[in-house]
Specification:
Blueprint: E1 5-10, H1 14-26, E2 30-35, H2 40-49, E3 53-55, E4 67-70, H3 77-84, E5 93-96, H4 103-109, E6 115-120, E7 132-136, H5 142-153, E8 158-160, H6 163-192, H7 198-219, H8 222-229, H9 235-245, H10 248-268
Parallel strand pairs: 1-2, 1-4, 2-3, 4-5, 5-6, 7-8
Antiparallel strand pairs: 6-7
The structure holds NADP nicotinamide-adenine-dinucleotide phosphate.
The site of NADP nicotinamide-adenine-dinucleotide phosphate has 27 residues, from helix 1 and helix 3.
């Protein structure tokens, strides 16, 4: 492969595939090697689908890599980082996408002054629309930051925040998609109670949500869009008033807090 930047993915699951397929579509000069530990069939499948190299022994590919991207489970990190530690060179960048593994953890586990970054994408990386948040370690060079931005940009929009904010806001960018899908399920159930088929209920609700998301994408201001649909004293206003009576805002706030509390418990465990 005659390409200038080599990225080694440790982990070959859904998130790794979303990221490297985005990179391959958008960037020309990245060479990609993808590794896992057990699932040989998965590597064969990926090699057939994409212009990548694959390996079941990633340690041999570290030396030639500019960037090592950890896309394995959080629980695998301790062992992977211990193996990586003696292999890492000063000019290499280590990125993780694992929940709960921030730059300070990576910097402690790797040689002093290693360049590290923490990227927290969401499942929409699959369709190139992940709203990702990220925090950078203390030793990244300008060139590494530029490369990191290209990698992140390959799966959607992104925002740099502090390490603590990645912990706190993963509830919004990572978990709240599940809240939204749950909202869709609830509306589907409500639609079904009016005597239409499941397929009709699904079409009505999904297309309404997709159309509303497109309006948000175009106009960017949810309150204004809501007001356009809500004539004072009208039918929609009665629906919104019911949501308010049932404390819609504080309900969502509580869901975010509960998500963060559980993430903290899991982090300690
Ligand atoms: N999916 C999401 O929406 C999402 C969002 C944000 C962050 N993340 C993070 O992304 C990471 C990967 O998630 P995923 O959804 O892609 O998981 P996944 O589909 O389960 O993939 C995990 C991959 O890691 C490999 N692996 C496990 N232990 C390994 C080891 N010791 N050495 C090398 N490879 C190893 C697995 O293959 P083998 O078992 O064959 O080794 C598998 O290819 C996780 O840390 C997760 O927290 C995921």
């Amino acid at each position: 492969m005659n390409k200038s930047i080599h990225i080694l993915f440790i982990g070959a699951g859904r998130m790794a595939e979303a990221i490297f397929s985005g990179i391959l579509q958008k960037e020309k000069n990245f060479a990609i090697t993808v590794a896992n530990q057990k699932d040989a069939e998965r590597l064969t499948y990926l090699k057939e689908q994409y212009q990548i190299e694959v390996t079941s022994d990633w340690s041999k590919s570290v030396e030639t890599s500019d960037i090592i991207l950890l896309a394995c489970p959080p629980s695998a990190h301790e062992k992977v980082l211990a193996t990586l530690n003696p292999l890492i060179k000063p000019n290499q960048l280590v990125i993780t996408v694992a929940a709960g593994i921030g730059p300070s953890y990576l910097e402690k586990a790797l040689p002093a002054k290693t360049s590290v970054a923490w990227l927290m994408p969401n499942t929409a990386a699959d369709v190139g629309r992940s709203m990702s948040i990220y925090a950078l370690g203390n030793y990244m060079t300008g060139e590494q930051t530029e490369l990191f931005t290209k990698i992140v940009g390959a799966i959607g929009p992104a925002e740099q925040v502090t390490e603590q904010q990645v912990h706190d806001l993963t509830a919004i960018t990572g978990s709240a998609p599940a809240f939204l899908y749950y909202f869709v399920e609830a509306l589907e159930a409500a639609a079904l109670s009016y005597g239409i088929t499941k397929e009709q209920a699904r079409k009505l609700v999904l297309e309404m949500v997709i159309g509303s998301a497109a309006m948000l994408d175009k106009h960017r201001d949810p309150a204004k869009l809501r007001e356009q649909v809500t004539s004072p004293g009208g039918a929609t206003a009665a629906g919104i008033a019911t949501l308010d009576e049932q404390h819609f805002f504080s309900l969502l706030e509580s869901a975010v807090t509960a998500t963060n509390n559980r993430a903290k418990e899991q982090g300690k465990a």
